[in-house]
Structure formats: C-alpha cells, structure tokens
Amino acid sequence: MDDFDGFNVGARLLEVRRAAGLSQRALAERASVPHGQISMVEQNRSSPSVASLRKILSGVPMTLAEFFEPDRPESDRVFFAAHELVDLTSRLHGADQAAPILFRQVGEARAHNLQILHERYAPGADTGPTMLEHNAHEGGVVLSGALEITVGTQKRVLGPGDAYLFDSRTPHRFRNIGDDDAVVISACTPPYL
C-alpha cells in the first residue's frame, strides 16, 4: 500500500519525521498514536485514513497540504479561481475514486495562519467515530444539505445558512445524515489540514 495517486505516503512520513529530528516513538508520543502505527505507515504496511494521517502530522506539526505539496511556494496572491483551490483529498483517495469527503483549500494557509476550506460531504460521509481534536479554532457556514456536527456533548443538525464556531481542542465530529451532498465553507486558525 505504498501509492496514493502516485504519492508514497510512507517515504514522505519518514522524510518529515527525520527532518523534525524525531524518533518513531517520539513522534508517536507527540501525536498520541501507538508507536507501531508510525512504523507501519513508514513501511507502507498500513494505509492511514485522513483522520489518522492528520493526527500523526499534528506531532510535527504539519498540515496535509504541506505534507502532499512540500515544494509549493508561498504566494502573495489575493484571488483564486475555483479550479485553483488546493485539493487536499485527491491524493488520499486517488484522482479516479469518488471521495466521501472533499476538502479544497484557498491559497497558502500557513502563510496567513488561516485555513479556508470548501468542504463537500457525500450522503453518509462521516469524519469517523474517533472524534477529532487539534489545537485551533474553527467555524463554518453550511451552504447546502444537512450536516450533523458533534462538539463535546453538544450535537446539532445544521442546514443551509446555519453556522458553527468552536475551540477545536474539544472533541468533534462531522456527519452528513441527509440524502444530498452537504457543502460547507469553513475556516480554521491555525491551519489544521
């Protein structure tokens, strides 16, 4: 399992970990994941989910965009056409596969310490039963569909025009419980993906 649309995740994780001067054990401790998980991914014996890879990268820290596009230059651009948004999910799911959750980023998030995403959740898409947690704040507005959002002990289904804003250190989860795609515009600072 060493190929995600032509991208060797194991080799890249090994490169990132070594550049940060971390042992597998140290990265595992910083990211709060089992030591064996780092080893399995680096050896391409395990294919991480988006949530798992994001959690591992939180120990560096590094976003998915930085992980998959290490040579992307920072930009002073102000305007972006729809086709110029950075696709953060196609490398994980392959260009020919339909991903249940799509994330498209506006510009260089790290350069501005702000990540703005256009998100699309297919019917039934779920960030997973393991709640997400990261050191940031995030918010968003649902443009279409129905998205169930759980933040800590609070849970609500949001529809078009409804919004959310919370401290991302609180465990959270996103699920599309509707029959149509749920589309969200969100922001996170500092960048997480």
From TrEMBL:
Gene3D superfamilies: Jelly Rolls, lambda repressor-like DNA-binding domains
GO molecular function: DNA binding; DNA-binding transcription factor activity
Keywords: DNA-binding
UniProt superkingdom: Bacteria
Chain segments annotated as coiled-coil in the UniProt record: none
SMART domains: HTH_XRE
Signal peptide: none
Gene Ontology cellular component annotations, sorted alphabetically: cytosol
One Pfam assignment: Cupin_2
InterPro entries: Cro/C1-type_HTH, Cupin_2, Lambda_DNA-bd_dom_sf, RmlC-like_jellyroll, RmlC_Cupin_sf, TransReg_Diox_bact_type
Domain HTH cro/C1-type: 13-67
UniProt xrefs under PANTHER family: HTH-TYPE TRANSCRIPTIONAL REGULATOR (PTHR46797), HTH-TYPE TRANSCRIPTIONAL REGULATOR PUUR (PTHR46797:SF11)
Name by which UniProt lists this protein: Cupin domain-containing protein
